[in-house]
């Protein structure tokens, strides 16, 4: 078994493992299933999530980012799902492992182009964890978002999401009661009770 690269940022490593374990649980028959990301299949969400993690890595390292537009994924995979995802997670974790926690800012692929390191790592984690949830509910798996992870990610979301709604990255927030997980999902415009 290959050793997994970790970033040393707990929230990011936890989110990466949530996405990795969810992707391990999908089958070829799952790839065309609908997801909570309107108009995107499981394969497209997977491509988007992998592309985003590569974009976070490229922002830090200056290395290559995704060779496709993560916001226009094709839905056609060349090979196994984990073979697409794992290099992206490895690159992202390795890049964040180089970021000084005491730095004023770290480069990110989101406007305004840099964030405080804790927030940048959290933004990458938010992307990974929420798309892990999307894929899990689309494929009938146990959603990997825990109350602790959702609580940490909600702090991140309240710092970065509002400006991104204007770009269509997130739907309007849903005003509804719920626990930590539901609260995060509602804030991101997702319905915690979504089913295919």
Automatic annotation (TrEMBL):
<dbReference type="InterPro" id="IPR034660">
    <property type="entry name" value="DinB/YfiT-like"/>
</dbReference>
<feature type="domain" description="Mycothiol-dependent maleylpyruvate isomerase metal-binding">
    <location>
        <begin position="13"/>
        <end position="136"/>
    </location>
</feature>
<dbReference type="InterPro" id="IPR017517">
    <property type="entry name" value="Maleyloyr_isom"/>
</dbReference>
<dbReference type="GO" id="GO:0046872">
    <property type="term" value="F:metal ion binding"/>
</dbReference>
<dbReference type="InterPro" id="IPR024344">
    <property type="entry name" value="MDMPI_metal-binding"/>
</dbReference>
<protein>
    <submittedName>
        <fullName>TIGR03086 family protein</fullName>
    </submittedName>
</protein>
<dbReference type="Pfam" id="PF11716">
    <property type="entry name" value="MDMPI_N"/>
</dbReference>
<dbReference type="InterPro" id="IPR017520">
    <property type="entry name" value="CHP03086"/>
</dbReference>
């Amino acid at each position: 078994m290959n050793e997994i690269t970790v970033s040393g940022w707990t929230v990011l490593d936890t989110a990466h493992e949530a996405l990795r374990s969810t992707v391990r649980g999908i089958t070829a028959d799952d790839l065309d299933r609908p997801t909570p990301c309107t108009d995107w299949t499981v394969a497209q969400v997977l491509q988007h999530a992998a592309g985003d993690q590569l974009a976070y890595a490229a922002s830090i390292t200056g290395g290559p980012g995704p060779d496709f537009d993560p916001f226009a994924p094709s839905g056609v995979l060349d090979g196994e799902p984990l073979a697409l995802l794992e290099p992206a997670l490895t690159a992202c974790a390795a890049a964040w492992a180089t970021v000084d926690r005491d730095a004023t800012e770290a480069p990110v692929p989101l406007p305004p182009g840099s964030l405080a390191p804790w927030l940048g790592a959290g933004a990458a984690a938010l992307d990974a964890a929420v798309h892990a949830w999307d894929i899990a509910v689309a494929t009938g798996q146990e959603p990997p978002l825990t109350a602790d992870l959702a609580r940490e990610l909600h702090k991140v979301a309240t710092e970065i999401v509002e400006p991104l709604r204007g770009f269509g990255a997130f739907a309007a927030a849903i005003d509804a009661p719920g626990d930590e997980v539901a609260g995060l999902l509602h804030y991101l415009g997702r319905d915690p009770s979504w089913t295919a």
